[in-house]
Each structure stands twice: as structure tokens, then as C-alpha cells.
Amino acid sequence: MEEKSRENKILKFHEQLCKGCYWVGGILLFIMAFTVSYDVFMRYFFNRPTSWSIDFAEYILLYSTFLAAAWLLKMDGHVKVTVLHDKLGEKAQLALDIINSVIGAMACLIMTWVGGKETVESFLANVLIIRPVTLPKWVVLWVIPFGFFLFFTYFIRNIFHLASEWRSGLTPKK
Question: How confident is the model at residue 119 (pLDDT cuts 50, 70, 90)?
């Protein structure tokens, strides 16, 4: 019983972490809209454009994408091409969803590894991004393996959920 309670706490923590990352990504997009608007205002009304707003917009797009991806998977909010899926029976759809989640989990795990390796190498070599605002490269990169890891964990959760539906004979919920 204690093990089940610990498992539920871990899943709740994971859920809250992914939801929090989703909201941080949304707030960052709001900040990006403000900074780009500020740059446009300064450029056209005072002929004094900022040197940093485009760089920060690029970083914010990167961060918001990787922070929100896992929660969007949970909410089934990613774009899908369902031409084949919709033509299949319920059991075949469930099997295809399991296969899709396994492939997604493997791809995310590989990208977590590759992104993590690149981030650590950039940190150890003290690589800098030389732009109007100079930053260590790892500050920009860390969100990629982090986001892919969260994405990976939701694919794993989907696999277990879909497999339990398969075993129980239930049909997938849309």
C-alpha cells in the first residue's frame, strides 16, 4: 500500500511539473509578444530598435515549445494525421496508438540523450553564444533534453495506459 502511495505521489509530482512547465511556456510567449511589440514601437516611433529582442524571441520560442510539449501530449493537443487511424477498427486503433507511443518514446529518449550530451559538452567547454546578448550555450540548450525527457515520460505513461486498456478489452477514449 505504501508503494502505491509513493507511486501516486511521483505521478502527481510529474503531472504538476509538466503542467507548471506548460504555464511557464505560455507566460514566456506573452513576454515575447511584449518584447517584440516594444521593439517595433521603439523602431518606428523613435528610430531606436533594440538589439536584443529578436534573440530573446528565438530563445523564448525554443523554451515555450519544449516546456509545453509534454502537457500537450497529455491533453492530446498535438497535430495528428488520422487518415489511416480513423479507417481502422477500435482494437487496431488501440494497437496503432501503442506503436505510435513506443516510437515516440524511443525518439524522445534518443533526443534526450543527444541533447543532454550536447548541453553537458557546451557547459564543460564553456561555449558562448556571441550575439547582442552573450550567453553560455548551455543556458539555451538545457531545455531541449529536459523537454524531451518530460515528453518521453508522458509517452511511457501513455504506453502503460493503452496497454491496460488493451488487456481489459476497453476501447480507446477520444
Answer: very high
* Per-residue model confidence as pLDDT tens digits over 40-69: 999 999 989 898 898 999 999 999 999 999
Q: Which of 137, 145, 140, 136 is nearest to 117 (CA)?
A: 145
Q: Parse the chain into domains and list their residue ranges.
A: 2-168
C-alpha cell at 152: 518521453
Percent of the chain with pLDDT over 70: 97
Which residue, among 125, 118, 111, 126, has the nearest Cα to 142 in the 3D structure?
A: 118
Q: What are the DSSP calls for 120-149, one per residue?
A: HHHHHTT-EE-SSS-EEHHHHHTHHHHHHH
Q: What is the largest CA-CA distance in the chain?
A: 67
What is the pTM (predicted TM-score) of this model?
0.85
Neighbours of 88 (CB within 10 A): 13
Number of neighbouring beta carbons within 10 Å of residue 47: 7
pLDDT value of position 75: 86
3-state SS string for 39-70: HHHHHHHHCCCCCCHHHHHHHHHHHHHHHHHH
* 67 vs 97: CA distance, rounded Å: 23
Q: What are phi and psi of 11, to 5 degrees?
A: -65, -40
